[in-house]
Amino acid sequence: MPDFAKPFIVECDASSHGFGAVLVQEGHPVAFFSRPIATRHRALAAYERELIGLVQAVRHWRPYLWGRHFIVRTDHYSLKYLLDQRLATIPQHHWVGKLLGFDFSVEYRSGATNVVADALSRCDTEEGELLAISAPRFDFISRLRHAQALDPSLVAIHDEVRAGTRAAPWAVTDGMVTFDGRLYIPAASPWYTLHSYFHFPTMRRLVQDFVRACATCQRFKSEHLHPAGLLHPLPVPSVVWEDIALDFVEALPRVHGKTVILSVVDRFSKYCHFIPLAHPYTAESVAQAFFTDIVRLHGVPRSIVSDRDPVFTSAFWRELMRLMGTKLHMSSAFHPQSDGQTEAANRVIVMYLRCFTGDRPRHWLRWLPWAEYTYNTAYQSSLRDTPFRVVYGRAPPSIRSYEPGETRVEAVAQEMEARDAFLADVRYRLEQAQAVQKRHCDRAHRMVSYQVGDWALLRLRQRAAASLPRTVTGKLKPRYVGPYRVSELINDVAVRLELPPGARLHDVFHVGVLKKFVGAPPTSPPVLPPILDGAVVPDPARVVRARLARGVRQVLVQWRGEPAASATWEDYDDFRDQHPAFQLEDELVFEEGRDVMYGRPYVRRGRARDVRRARERAKHAQEASGANPSG
C-alpha cells in the first residue's frame, strides 16, 4: 500500500509500440501503467515519444502525485533538462503544459537498469500458455563414475588417495577421482582409450575414419595444410587491348567530387588507364567513362576480367556487354585472386600517388596522369620491356626538350615484320613469366579434385563494411558452413555448389575456400548465414549516435564482437529496413541535451488555421442539425 508520507518515484519509458511506467516507493512497486502508442505518434522522434509517455504516466497517477514533490526517472538523457531547455515546437508546448502544477524533478536512468518500464512499453507477442516445465537430466556424471571404476589407472589413483600415499590436490569426491576440485579424465586419444579394452582388425583405421567424419570437428576446426588448388592462369592474349581487366580503387580523398579510380589494364601489354570517378557510381556512369576513355582509344574489347562488384554483376552491364559482343569473366566467390592483375596495378598506382602527393593527399587528382605515365613507361619484368613500347612499338618519347638532327626512315614491310616479331616475342616472355609464377605458386599449394556429387564445406570470408541480421560472430564462430553438394565442375580449381534456395551468393567457388566433407551428407543443404555482396554480415550491438550528412540521416553503428574503432556510419532508413527487430530508439545516446533523432518536419504555417476552420464548420453543421431535426 502507498505511504503518502514518503516520496514517490515514477519510472517511465516509451518504445515504438507503447508507453510503460511503474510507480515506486522505497524500491517497491506501487502501481503499473501500460498503454499502446497512437498511430499518429509512431512517426515522432524518440524525444517526443518519451515526453508523451512521461506526461501520460504523471497524469495517470495524479491522485498520488498532486501536491507533493516526486521524482521522474527516464532512460532518455535529453529529458533530464526538460524543465530548463527551450521548447521549439507547438507539440512540446502542448505536452509540457499538461505538467503545470506538478512539483517534480527529472533524473536520468540508463536503459539497462530501466527494465520494468521498458517491458511495460513493449508489445506482448507471446500467444501460448505455460502448461509445464521440463528440464533435461544428464547422466554424464553417472556414466563417468562407472567409467572411472573400469579404468585401471584411475582405480590405482583412487586406492593411493584412500591409503594416503597420494596427497592434495588429488582427492576422491563422491566416489570419483578429482584433481584440484575438478573431475579427472586421463589424457588419451580415442584409439588409445579403445585399445585398452578392445582389439579387432583395422581398428586404428576405423577410429581415424570415425574421427575424420565428425561433422562438428570439420566445421569448427582449422586446417593446417597448404591452400587448396594449384594455379590456373588465364590464357595469354595475342593482341593488345583485346582482353582487359577492370577494378576500382576507393576511399581516396574527395577532390572535385572524385573519390574513386577505375583501373583498366590490358592483359597483354600491361598498359593501364586510370579513370577518376565520383562516388556513388553506377553501372551507367562506369559505362560512360569506359566508352569515353577506353573504347574511344582502343576499340571494343573481346573479353573483360573483373571481380563480382555490383556494377559488373548488374543487368545493365551484362546486357550492354552482350550487345557489344564482349565476354565477361568474373572471379569466383571469395577468391579475388582471379583478378590479380588489376589488384597489382591498384597497389602500384596507390604507391605512386602516395609518393607524388606526400603530405598533400588532396592533390592526387592533379598527379594521376603523371602516375599513369610513370606506370606505363616503367619496366615490367614479365614483359622485359615497358607497356608503352609493347603497345606503340617504340620507346616512350623523352620528357626532355627535343634535340633535332636524328632521323631514321625504314620500309613499311620491314617495320610491320619487326612489329609482329616484337609482339610474338612479348607473348613468349609473358608465357615464360606465367610459367615461373605458376611454379612458385604451386610449391605452396596442393592439388584437390572434386567430382559431381561430392559434398564440400564452405569457408566464408570476413565481412565487408556492412551491417545486417543476426549471425554467430567472434572467436567461437564456425570456420566452415555446409556441407553443400557439388553440382558442376567449372575447371580444375572451380566448382559449382547447390546452395539453399534464396541464397544471395554466387554459386561458383574456388577450391581454396572449400573443404571436402567426410561422413553422411545431410538430407537438405544447411541454411547460409546472412550474406551481403559475398560477405557474412554481423550483428549490430548498439547505435552510438546519429547525424544528418548531406540531407541523409545516418547512425553510427558499433558491431557485435568488433572494437569501437570499427563502428561505421549507416543510412538510417536502410538500417531500419535491414534490422526491423532492432530497437533503434532505445540504443541512441543523446549528448548535451540535444535530440539526435530526426522526426517528420513540423509544418506550422496554416496548420492551426485549417484545424480551427474545420472545427467551426463541424460546430455549425451540428447546430444546424439540432435546430432543424426534420431536415
TrEMBL record:
<keyword id="KW-0645">Protease</keyword>
<keyword id="KW-0378">Hydrolase</keyword>
<keyword id="KW-0238">DNA-binding</keyword>
<keyword id="KW-0064">Aspartyl protease</keyword>
<dbReference type="GO" id="GO:0003887">
    <property type="term" value="F:DNA-directed DNA polymerase activity"/>
</dbReference>
<keyword id="KW-0233">DNA recombination</keyword>
<dbReference type="GO" id="GO:0003677">
    <property type="term" value="F:DNA binding"/>
</dbReference>
<dbReference type="InterPro" id="IPR012337">
    <property type="entry name" value="RNaseH-like_sf"/>
</dbReference>
<protein>
    <recommendedName>
        <fullName>Integrase catalytic domain-containing protein</fullName>
    </recommendedName>
</protein>
<dbReference type="GO" id="GO:0004190">
    <property type="term" value="F:aspartic-type endopeptidase activity"/>
</dbReference>
<dbReference type="InterPro" id="IPR041373">
    <property type="entry name" value="RT_RNaseH"/>
</dbReference>
<dbReference type="GO" id="GO:0006508">
    <property type="term" value="P:proteolysis"/>
</dbReference>
<dbReference type="InterPro" id="IPR001584">
    <property type="entry name" value="Integrase_cat-core"/>
</dbReference>
<keyword id="KW-0255">Endonuclease</keyword>
<dbReference type="Pfam" id="PF24626">
    <property type="entry name" value="SH3_Tf2-1"/>
</dbReference>
<dbReference type="GO" id="GO:0015074">
    <property type="term" value="P:DNA integration"/>
</dbReference>
<dbReference type="GO" id="GO:0046872">
    <property type="term" value="F:metal ion binding"/>
</dbReference>
<dbReference type="GO" id="GO:0004519">
    <property type="term" value="F:endonuclease activity"/>
</dbReference>
<dbReference type="InterPro" id="IPR036397">
    <property type="entry name" value="RNaseH_sf"/>
</dbReference>
<dbReference type="GO" id="GO:0003964">
    <property type="term" value="F:RNA-directed DNA polymerase activity"/>
</dbReference>
<dbReference type="Pfam" id="PF00665">
    <property type="entry name" value="rve"/>
</dbReference>
<keyword id="KW-0460">Magnesium</keyword>
<dbReference type="GO" id="GO:0006310">
    <property type="term" value="P:DNA recombination"/>
</dbReference>
<dbReference type="InterPro" id="IPR016197">
    <property type="entry name" value="Chromo-like_dom_sf"/>
</dbReference>
<keyword id="KW-0239">DNA-directed DNA polymerase</keyword>
<keyword id="KW-0808">Transferase</keyword>
<feature type="region of interest" description="Disordered">
    <location>
        <begin position="609"/>
        <end position="631"/>
    </location>
</feature>
<dbReference type="Pfam" id="PF17917">
    <property type="entry name" value="RT_RNaseH"/>
</dbReference>
<keyword id="KW-0695">RNA-directed DNA polymerase</keyword>
<dbReference type="InterPro" id="IPR056924">
    <property type="entry name" value="SH3_Tf2-1"/>
</dbReference>
<keyword id="KW-0540">Nuclease</keyword>
<keyword id="KW-0479">Metal-binding</keyword>
<feature type="domain" description="Integrase catalytic">
    <location>
        <begin position="233"/>
        <end position="395"/>
    </location>
</feature>
<keyword id="KW-0229">DNA integration</keyword>
<dbReference type="InterPro" id="IPR050951">
    <property type="entry name" value="Retrovirus_Pol_polyprotein"/>
</dbReference>
<dbReference type="InterPro" id="IPR043502">
    <property type="entry name" value="DNA/RNA_pol_sf"/>
</dbReference>
<dbReference type="InterPro" id="IPR041588">
    <property type="entry name" value="Integrase_H2C2"/>
</dbReference>
<keyword id="KW-0548">Nucleotidyltransferase</keyword>
<dbReference type="Pfam" id="PF17921">
    <property type="entry name" value="Integrase_H2C2"/>
</dbReference>
